[in-house]
Amino acid sequence: MSPEGSRVVLGATSERVRILFISGQHLVADAVRVALESRGVEVVVPAWTGRASDSITRQRLVGWQVGAGLVVGDFLGPEQREAAGLLGRLPLPWLLLVEEPADPGWSELVDSGATGVVPSSVALDDLVARLADLVLGRARAAWPDRDQLEEEWRLRRVEQEDQRLRMATLSPREHSVLALLHDGLSVREIAELTGVREGTVRSQVKAVLRKLGVSSQLAAVAQFQRWSEQPERP
Predict the structure, then answer these.
(1) CA 54 to CA 83: how far, in whole Å?
(2) Fewest CB within a 10 Å sphere: which of 8, 102, 116, 220?
(3) Measured in whole angstroms, how far is the alpha carbon of residue 93 from the centre of its chain?
């Protein structure tokens, strides 16, 4: 990259923006890296040594000469996730870029020291500006949306726990019926598949709706989908 391409215009001055970049999915990583480089951001990708504690160190940080970090949270492998968690121990501000910031699954990484959480739908120029602010030492402590985000996490955890408890009340047969509804089968098809009367399946569906606290099969299927997407289920 040419020297002119390694600078981002910030007001009346041009400042070098060089960041540490962590991502666990090659296609996504390449797309984000190329997009950032198209705006003049220099991107440093760690060479993984097999242990995150060896890959992310103060000594390596000095050699990289980076002023901020960017972690693409979705699709992180175990090593990359551990490495991201280690960033909080280093004198480096960093952003977490994720598809759904309201997912409470990101709270652990945020607590490890993220300077901010940014949705992957963010405009490229906005992302570059945020990274440039971090490199220049601006907005490190200010995170006006953090309280709101943490409240969203709390509400989402409450919702997930309620879903988990309601799902736990279903009998094995009711759970099976709900799973088949989720797969797109009709009541008649479920009856034919399981060898029971259609009226029996309808009674099981009614029991499922009552236990889940919903009024329609569509709502029950949607709740099953959300439950199935939770990272940890009993």
Answers:
(1) 9
(2) 102
(3) 19
Residue limits of CATH 3.40.50.2300 in the chain: 18-144, 148-229
Contacts of 98 (CB under 8 A, 6+ apart): 72, 73, 74, 106, 117, 118, 119, 120
- How would you list the strands of the sheet with 42-44, edge to edge? 42-44, 18-23, 68-72, 94-98, 116-119
**Tens of pLDDT, residue by residue, the chain (234 residues):** 333 333 444 433 356 789 999 988 788 888 999 999 999 999 988 876 556 565 566 767 777 888 899 999 888 887 788 888 888 788 888 999 998 887 877 888 888 888 888 899 999 999 999 999 888 886 544 455 777 777 777 787 788 888 889 999 999 999 999 999 999 999 999 999 999 999 999 999 999 999 999 999 999 999 898 888 776 543
CATH fold group of domain 18-144: Rossmann fold (3.40.50)
Instruction: Give the number of C-alpha atoms closer than 13 A to the C-alpha of residue 152, restricted to the C-beta side.
Output: 13
Query: What sections of 136-216 are H helices per DSSP?
Result: 146-168, 172-182, 187-194, 198-212
**20 by DSSP, 3-state: which?**
strand
Q: Where are the strands (E) in 5-79, listed by range? A: 7-10, 13-16, 18-23, 42-44, 68-72
